[in-house]
Amino acid sequence: MTDREWLATEFEQHRPRLQSVAYRMLSSMSEAEDAVQESWVRLDRADADAVDDLGAWLTVVVARVCLDMLRARRARREFDPGVSLPEPIVTTEPEEGPEGAAELADSVGLALLVVLDALTPAERLAFVLHDMFAVSYDEIAGIVDRSPAAARQLASRARRRVQGEAPRPDADLRLQRKLVDAFLAAARGGDFEGLLAVLDPDVVFRADVGKLAPRFRTRLHGAEEVARELIERGAPFAPLARPAIVNGAAGAVVRVAGRPFSVVAFTVAKGRIVEIDIVVDPDKLQALSVEE
Question: What is the pTM of this model?
Answer without folding.
Answer: 0.87
